[in-house]
Structures are given as C-alpha cells and as structure tokens.
Amino acid sequence: MVRYFRHPMFITFAVFLILPAFIMKLGFMTLAIEVMIWIIFAMGYNILLGYTGLPSFGHGLFFGTGAYICGLIQQHIIAGTWIPILGSMLFCGMIAGIVGLFLARKRGIYFALLTIALTQLFFFIAFLWDGVTGGEDGLMGIERYALTFFGLFSIPIEGILSYYYFVFVILMVSLILLWKMVHSPLGSVLYATKQNEVRAKYLGYNSVLYKWIALVISAIFAGLAGALYAMLMHGAFANPMHWTKSGDVVMMVLIGGGLTNFFGPILGAAIFIAIRDIISSITEHWYLFYGLLIVFIILFLPEGILGYFRVGHASGREEVLEEV
C-alpha cells in the first residue's frame, strides 16, 4: 500500500487536491488552474512527441481550435458545459484525422515544418475571420455554466474554487487514461515505432496508421485543454494558435523529461508557468531566463529533470525494444 502513496500519480493528485488551501488567499487560483490545463495539453502532446517521436511545432492549432469551438457551440448551439467541451474534443480529433492523412507519412523535420505551416494557416483564419472568431478582439462571452447530470441535479462552476476542482477532476481522468494507454499494447507499438519504424513494419504493424492514431489522440486532449482554457478566460483568442506559442508546450515536455518520462510534462508545465508569471513581473525579457534554463537542461540534463532522476519511466519498454 505504501508504494501506491509514493507513486508520482498519487503525489500529483494529492498536491493539486490540497493546493487551494495554501494559495486561495494569495490570489493564485487562476494560475493554478492554468497550470492544470497546460498539464493536460502537455501530457496529450507527449503521446505524439515522447512516445511516437513526432515533433509537432504547431500543436497550438488544436488548443486554439478547441477554445473557439467551445465558444461557438455555447453561443450558437447550446449554452452548457459538457456539449461544448465534448464538441471541442471531437472537432479537434476530426481536424487531426484529416491533416493526419498527410502528416502521418512524414517524420522528423518534414513533419515539424508541415505542422508549423498548418497552425499558421489556421492562425490567420482565426485572426482575420471577424464574423466568426471575433478576429483580433477574440471570441468573448464564453461562460462556465453549471454542470448538469441528466437533468437530475446541477453543480455550479462559475466560482473560481468550484472551477478549480472541476478542472482537477478532468486532470485526474486524463492522466489515468493516458497512463493506461501508454502501458497498453497501443503504447508499446507507438514507442516501438519511435525507436525503429522499419523494424516495427517488419513485425506487421502499420506504422502510418499508428502515427495517425497518436496524432488524433493528442489533438483530442489539446482540444479538451483549449475548451477548459476558454472557459477560464471567458474568451477564445488567436494568439495560442501562433507557432511561437506552440513551442511552449514543446519546451514543457523537454524541461520535465517527457521524452523519456511519463510525468515529465507535469513538472515542465509547472516550471514554465511559474517562470513566466514570476520573472515576467520583474522584467519583460523573461524568455531570456527561460532560454538559459533550456540551454542548461540540454547540456547537463538531456533527459529532463525527472528523466535524470528516472522517476516514472514506463515499464515494459525494454521488452518491447528487445522484441523489435
């Protein structure tokens, strides 16, 4: 029983469960919610980068699209919470499924460049399509409606504390689902494809199909994070879709050790948000300090912080590689 309490998953849940007791009076609740949302985004992205080896530098496309779809569903279809969130996830999965027909056959720099081109395309559409997205001003008026359960009862989440625990529950479910997935046969095939795609093909696995699946799954979680972020900010904006913002989630994964560690993006997201808000309050050149941290990680901790301490490595990978 003690080993379960020491598990990084349990520690993560415990920290975020009691965190409001320490930060509520300090006014950091919005920041804590943002950290959880970025963790969902980064953990989903790590399925693509860390486990499948596909470097997407345009994943903000799905994050931003999820935010817009959430707002558009609320304003034009149904004023609620569940349907807009599920709609964002489904729509982002559909977009990934379509673009994945072309992206899944690429690897390395070609995959990365195509993702940058796609996210820039969607960025300019969102930025210029005033009638739908609000253009430069963004899509405002996105609300946090009460959670309804089959019309039997409802739970309000307009308050910052109630919304915190709503996002917390979604974070728990997301992490558990992703943990189960990477420790399933699907996760083993994705990791084998990353290590040696040719050998994976010789074993009979359709690597293109599995890369397509990884992209779709990753996009679904990005859409979920985008919808939650839109509700937090009460609006959706084009800025997260820019390719420079897409690089933020890449850095989160690298800092924490997501390329070799399941829990790396959790630490990476927390560090990134903390540096951004603390140092940016001192100087507008906070990216300089962030860049120095990245250089330090690359030079001295190439596997990231958690990778260096070998915390939370997925079991069974060695066996998969030996088989492949």
**Rg, Cα atoms, Å:** 19 Å
Secondary-structure-based class equals mainly alpha
Low-confidence residue ranges: 314-324
Strand order in the sheet with the most strands: 1-4
**Large-scale geometry:** globular
Q: What is the first-to-last residue Cα distance? A: 35 Å
- Work out the helix count: 17
Strands, count: 4
The percentage of residues in β strands lies in: under 5%
Mean pLDDT: 87
Helical content, roughly?
over 70%
Major sheet: 2 strands, antiparallel
Order of helices and strands: HHHHHHHHEEEHHHHEHHHHH
Task: Give the topology.
Blueprint: H1 2-5, H2 8-18, H3 20-23, H4 29-49, H5 60-76, H6 82-103, H7 108-128, H8 130-133, E1 139-140, E2 147-149, E3 153-155, H9 160-182, H10 185-195, H11 197-202, H12 207-233, E4 235-236, H13 243-256, H14 264-279, H15 286-300, H16 304-309, H17 317-323
Keywords, please?
single chain; mainly alpha; 4 strands; 71% helix; disordered C terminus
Overview of the structural elements:
The chain contains 17 helices and four strands. It has a domain at about 35-240. The protein starts with a helix and ends with a helix. It is globular. Strands 1-4 form a two-stranded antiparallel sheet. A two-stranded antiparallel ribbon has the order 2-3. The chain has helices spanning about 1-5, 10-20, 20-25, 30-50, 60-75, 80-105, 110-130, 130-135, 160-180, 185-195, 195-200, 205-235, 245-255, 265-280, 285-300, 305-310, 315-324, and strands at about 140, 145-150, 155, 235.
